[in-house]
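Problem 12. The chain below contains 490 residues. Write out its predicted structure in token notation.
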Amino acid sequence: MKHFTKLTLLALLVVFASCQNESVQEDAPEQALLRFKDGQVVSDGEEDKELMFDGESEILRSSKDSFSTKTSNCTPDLLDTGLNSSVNIDVVNKPGTGGYFDISLDGGEIIQAYCADQQPSLGVNDDGLDFSVVSTYDDGQLQGSGQFASVFANPQNFDKVNWMLNNIDISEGSEYTYGHVQYAIWKLIEGADNFVNDFPLYLTNPTNNWNSDDIIKAEEIYDMAIANGEGFEPGCGEMLGLVLIPANFEVVQSILISREIPDEEDCETTTLTDGDCTGCDASMSVTYSCDCQCVEVSACKDLSNIVLLTADGTEVKYEDLEGQTANLCSPDGSPIVSVWVKAGCFRSGDGPGYGRRFDNPNPDCSVPEEECEDCLGKVTDLTLNWDWHNDYRVKVYQRRGNTRYARKIFDQVVGPNEDFTIEGANSNGTFGKWVYIFVGNCYYTKIKTNCHINIGPGYRRGVIEVVSGQSSLGGELCEYEPPHSWCWWW
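Solution.
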């Protein structure tokens, strides 16, 4: 018993000593705002008795439990030609350097072109001619009762032509040439039953060198296009065929060019995770799409309900879900800013039956921000000022998700009037209800961070003052306005 008592007293002395000696300037005089009693910093008297510390509590969490992956957000518009509806053409060379023609569009860059059909013709001296620009996928203009429906015998075969433009290599050293591709284009658009290669002069450069081996290679390309090109549509970064059609297409030949479909810049999806697949709880993840229009949700247990909140304030609850995964999109086109996922027994208390909350951290998809806004949602980050004339070690904790256990998010010595920044370490980038501030090893004060108090620049807890901050749904915090009747706790 005596041995146990001595150990207990020794432990208490160590705690007291650590609280007393955390100051870098040990002999600094105490002042009114930061007071000590029996070697311990005087707190606000509101210590959270439920807050518990375990082996993970002292592991500094410097980043949020989320990760990003690159994905392409590109959906090609196959009717977008990327050019004006009409262009002026100069024929520069026939045959061309890498096509049946070299042409100039509107007096600019020289590009390669093919004949879009066999008849009529276009000569090397045909300059200054105006052509309409039409996508080879514009069935509204090329087929049926369209404006140019009578120009081509088999416009339904342009999908196969596009397959060739994207899959047949005619670069220097390849076994195929532009002439082989031109032959296959003629046969596809004229139709196999009507096609006769009766004008091979310009299928080679130098001219008039077309032979039986070339016919074999051209037929190979045609057969490959028939076998593989049905229904082909180019994607982003691939080539789209365009037909240039003259006003007098009965006497002037239409031509075929290609342009690369722009590959939109990759954007980042964000995946947030939280929960634990033990007992009645459930681990879960929410992935926000690049444009914040859709979410992918998964959990280790069957989903009960999912609630979406969009930037315009619309809130939709999806129930009667089946299985452990779901893909949902914005009901009104407004960006999704928050998702609640119910699986297992966890309840957030944010609404009837609402589960775990995941706020979208993507700033491009948040509620449109004014210069500043009241605290909305939950606080995600704070810049604080140490308003004291001595250096001290400051530690900041929050709760680990919705447990009682502490998670350290800041641990540094801060100097007189020094600013320091803390960031929420929950999976949704928030602090939760409170952040707990310790001076040395002793609790000092806490700041409510669930937006039940409209904190902002000027809000104080003892020698800690808020300089700036952000909330998950409101963005930049506006300056704090204290109530009419108030007093500081110190």
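Discussion. The chain is about 15% helix and 30% strand. Students who got a different answer should revisit the alignment rule from Section 12.3.
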